[in-house]
Amino acid sequence: MSKQPVRVVHTGHSEKLGLQTVTEVPASSEARPALIACTVATAAELPAVKVLSSSFLANHPEARFLALVVDALPENSGPGLVTPADLGIGPAELAELATGCTAAQLCGLLRPKLLEQLLGRHVPVLYLDPWVLVLGSVVDRVLAAVDRGPLVLLPRALRPLPDDGLRPTPAELLGTGVFDPGFLVVAPGAEPFLRSLHEQLRRTPDATKAVLDTAPALVDVEVLRDASIGLSAWNAHQRPLHRLDDGTLTVLGEPLLTVHFQGFDPGRPWLLSTAVADRPRVLLSEHPRLAELCTEYRAELVRRGYSPVPVRYGFGQLADGTPIPDELRADYREAARENTASAFHPPLSARDDAATEQPPTGHASIGQASAGHGPDPAARVNGTPVGATRPPVPPPPPAFAPDGGEGFLAWACEPAPGLPGSTRWAAALWRGDQQLRAQFPDPFGADGPAFRDWCAGAGVATGRLPVPAVPGPRADAPVLHDQLGVSVIGVGPAAELLQAAARASGLPMSTTVGYPVVVRVDDDTPVPAGRFVVDYRLDEGPAPDADELWVPSEATRAAVERAGGPAVRVLPLPVLEQEPYEPEEHEGVVFGALADHEIDRDGNVIGAVSAFLGAFTDQADVRLRIAVTGAADHPEAAERLRLATAADPRVELVAELGPVDCLISLHRGRGDRVTAALAEHAARGVPVLVPEHGAVAELFDKHSVVFVPCRQGAEPDVQAAVKLLRALADDLPAAREIGAKGRQRLDTRTTAKVGDLMRERVEHAYRTWRARRAAANPSPTVDPLKALHSAKHALLRQPDVGVASRTPMAPQLRKMVLRVLDHYDNHMRDVLASLVDGVERTVSDLVRRQDDLSAGIGQAELEALRSEVEQHLERQGRLSDQVLGLDDDVVRVRADMAGQGRRLREIEDAVVAEAAKRAKQGDALAQRIDKLTVALERTLDRIDTLESKVVDVLRERDTRLDAGMRAANQAQQTADALRRVVVREHERHGDGVPGVRSSLVLTEVGLLRLPSDDAFMLPILSSNGVWEQELSELIDSVVEPDGIFLDVGAYVGYQTVRMLSRFGTGGAVVAVEPCPSARELLRHNVLVNLPERVAERLVVVDAAAWESVGELATRPALTGGVSVAPVPEEATDVARVRAARLDKELEAVPELHGRKLSVVRVDAPGRGHRALAGLVRLLRRDRPHVFLEFSVSATEGFGDDPVTVLKEFRVWGYDLVPVATREPASPEQIVAALEGMRSTSLWLRPRPVQAPQPGPQVAVPLRQPADQAI
């Protein structure tokens, strides 16, 4: 089938690809290069491609470099850049490949195609991933390696990875592949391997790992075991870096040549690979040289055009921007693979073509000799003739065709195979999302409505699937028709035969579950409740929900019937009437056999072959033709038969049997399937030789077939079959007579006769269903003697003479009559009582006899009686239903007419009543308005009274407030005077800090000295005496009595003195202050306000807390103290201070050993995250509470991204809790809330840990220049 050209439509691209400037090709192209390097990437990876090309050509000026951009338009190709069109990939093929592959899969699929074309220049070709950085020349090592083999592979690691729980793990290495596909070298001679790799990737786009692992078996491979090449997250822990005096990076004593940054995210530069962010084996904080390399690489990416705004993959989404799920791409590949012209169905190799076109020589000669006498025996490929081809399956339309993806969307919105009520898109989305699978375990069954609501709501709102792909409501179960009928469901020949028998029975029949009796033919489809389910099985038992089991033979019934199981009944399969074969003139004798590989052992076709070969060892005029089915699904059994018959050219394997002189079957077991197949041929007059057991022995007698005796139960006697075959071959007229009798024997299995039997079975099942439904709602049992007992009690009643009457003296006259008739009345009462007693005894005896008769009647008689009664009831019910149907229609029409008249009268009454009601409502409304007017006047009077009272109350309250304010002001003035007295007295008798101008203030923690030029903290403490009261209370609530309080940016020691006084001699306080003057004031304040024993618990760090050890520049801060920053380049006159990692500083203090870090307070806006980065090891070990003064503007001014900084705190295991709200918040919420604010206090609250980690882990610090954003 020829395809129309398809134009590839890109759905997303940056117009500024810079395709003409991807790389710089040397001006001189006359000389033949020694090496050609290439890469395959997407448009989103162009900055990395530019870094790779520039670094490669800088170290290899004699080489050439090419880049293939898979989602670039053909018109954008240029020097150093190629597109898929340059590789011979047409628009239609590219559209199909891009639809069925992800970006990584498409790059991997086109990689061998690019390498094979570049090998046409007869020079070695080096493939490098886009995320590779070249630091030195690799030409000598590559050329030396290709001399030893045309394919050079690079292992990811040269030593086994330890199984310590860190990532990457050994299992991940085995799953991803031992060899790195980001570094491949091919030379002339590797073309067959590249073609094989390309074909395999077309079938399975994720097979790169498997093909590379098996490459040593396909081509001469040289493994490049060089530690200086391929530094990556897989091996960086095994290859420590060192920098020489000239700046060269070395690994294990050799210059570092290439670094593979696969997985590196410039937005998260503190991680070497984001793929192993949870438990990274390599921490950049522990490898400073590698961290510097990552920083330099990130800077190169930024210079080459990297932007935090991602570039859309050209084949990643539909025209409306909806991304295509990866699972849907896989479904598309599977569907497209059904078409032989698909891009995912590569052509067969030459060896496969030869094997298909050339049959074995012996079979070919036999086929030529027997031309015209049956099917070509050379047609034996999996039991299908060579010339026969399946009709081509149209491939699904690609998503990037000129129609804008409408055809693909229509295909994706179709129901997934086997999932009614679904769409392919929704099913693929569910399979690829673990959360959806957990939330909706049965998305198209029990959880269908909820999953459909999610798709229509959140799924469409988030752009994960288009509106047409939302699954529709599932069709309800068919309506149950309460009438005699049968539903036959199932597929296959047996189901078609039973459906024909059901139609011949005269019963209403359907292929849906609409009737009470449902017959499932070799099918386990669930049936709605309220049906009588019958399983029709050929060789196996019923499903658990079956009420009855029907089998085609008594042999099967005896085998599957068991106590406690469903009733088993026999219903033979009908045999369709067929015309007999016309006699054909041919030489010799042609025997036939059937080979159904699905029942290979029971079919025993090998036994038939053995009998044939034993009967005719050297007769060339005798042939055996075997009709093969199921070879493709059972290749082992097919190969066994092919191997058993390959040596004898007289044995032919064909797809259809055709006319034969005799049919052989030496099957074992019950053989229902075999019997049905044999009956089909026997109906055309073919004589049959079969074993005398099972279902075939029930169908035929000894006059209509040739029986082979069996030994050991059901095992046919092959030697007896050999003799019978010889006899049949010698007397073909007698064999034809047997075939005619066999055809006549099958008259008992016509469709009409089996239909009559099926009608009886269905009627019985229907009666059982009716009885079961009636038993579900039983009527209460009534004593038949109850009415008689009630009548007997009536004899004891006495006449009531006091009944009112118009006749005067009626009561007295009644008494006189009763006295006169008393004797006669008593006599009549005795007679009637005797009569009633006799009737009661007679009825009781009749009831007892009826019960005895019911209990003693035979089951057969009861079943027959019940059957007759049910037949009469059924006929009566049908007639009643018809009459009732007519009556119901008449009654319904009359009821509708009466209802219409009644509604008209009701409307008229309602109109009259509404008019009267409206008149009454008008009068009532007028009266109510008058009452409301009076009430309103009274309310206004009360409001005036209340207003006067409120004015008096407010005046009195203001007088009291004025008096209270005067008293408070006087107390405040008195307190201030006392404070000044205390401060002056202390200044008079106390000593200041030499060399530091300071002022003394009285606070809640004691007398503190602050720098005299402090314009922020000093005024507040002078007036209030309290600093950060809310934060102090929060620290007190979480600090541990014997822990360590770390005060970073302690300044003059307000929190230090307060916590020392709280700890006493129990805990310890570490104060970090880089400013020398503030540090002296801190020590002075501690000595003045605390006892000596308590002051000894203080440890002062005279350095700036930072992520690394070194020096920092200092400058005065507006809020007091100093602010630190990295030392600018070429700066000589700036003040400097020592930078220290706090984890190392604390570990170096012996007094702190054995103590746990309890609370960390960091008062360094914009620098606090850098200080915490040097403490991450202790943060993960002790998990203290951290109180951080955070400023968005200061963090941005320092060059870091506030949101990224806050996300890193969450990676360390902390919740972000603003102190002001005490509620956790996301980084984006915090940054948004701080808009326009200077800073805020954050509480980094440690999250609970479920289980201890394998070992202490240190998070990656934020290491980068100050002018770069995180």
What does this structure look like?
With 1270 residues, the protein is α/β, with parallel strands linked by helices. The chain folds into seven domains: 19-303, Spore Coat Polysaccharide Biosynthesis Protein SpsA, Chain A; 326-367 and 397-469, no CATH class; 486-570; 589-749, Glycogen Phosphorylase B (Rossmann fold); 813-849; 895-953; 1028-1246, Vaccinia Virus protein VP39 (Rossmann fold). 43% of the residues lie in helices and 14% in strands. The chain contains 40 helices and 39 strands. The strands form nine sheets. A seven-stranded mixed sheet has the order 3-2-1-4-7-6-8, with helices on both faces. The relative contact order is 0.05. Residues 1-29, 349-389 and 1255-1270 have low confidence and may be disordered.
Please specify the SSE layout and strand pairing.
Blueprint: E1 36-41, H1 46-59, E2 64-69, E3 81-82, H2 91-100, H3 103-118, E4 125-128, E5 132-134, H4 139-146, E6 151-155, H5 170-176, E7 179-186, H6 191-203, H7 208-213, E8 221-223, E9 241-243, E10 249-251, E11 254-255, E12 258-260, H8 288-303, H9 326-336, H10 350-357, H11 361-369, H12 406-412, H13 424-431, H14 434-439, H15 448-461, E13 486-489, H16 493-504, E14 509-510, E15 517-521, E16 532-536, E17 548-551, H17 554-560, E18 567-570, E19 589-596, H18 600-603, H19 605-615, E20 622-629, H20 635-645, E21 651-654, E22 662-664, H21 672-682, E23 688-691, H22 694-699, E24 706-708, E25 710-711, E26 715-716, H23 718-730, H24 732-745, H25 751-776, H26 786-793, H27 810-820, H28 822-856, H29 859-989, E27 998-1003, E28 1006-1011, H30 1017-1023, H31 1029-1038, E29 1044-1048, H32 1054-1063, E30 1068-1072, H33 1076-1089, H34 1092-1095, E31 1098-1101, E32 1104-1105, E33 1110-1116, E34 1122-1126, E35 1135-1140, H35 1142-1147, E36 1157-1162, H36 1168-1173, H37 1176-1182, E37 1185-1190, H38 1192-1197, H39 1202-1211, E38 1214-1218, H40 1227-1233, E39 1240-1246
Parallel strand pairs: 1-2, 1-4, 2-3, 6-8, 13-14, 13-15, 15-16, 16-17, 17-18, 19-20, 19-22, 20-21, 22-23, 23-24, 29-30, 29-36, 30-31, 32-35, 36-37
Antiparallel strand pairs: 4-7, 5-12, 6-7, 9-10, 10-11, 25-26, 27-28, 33-34, 33-35, 37-39, 38-39
Helix pairs in contact: 1-8, 3-6, 9-13, 16-25, 19-23, 32-33
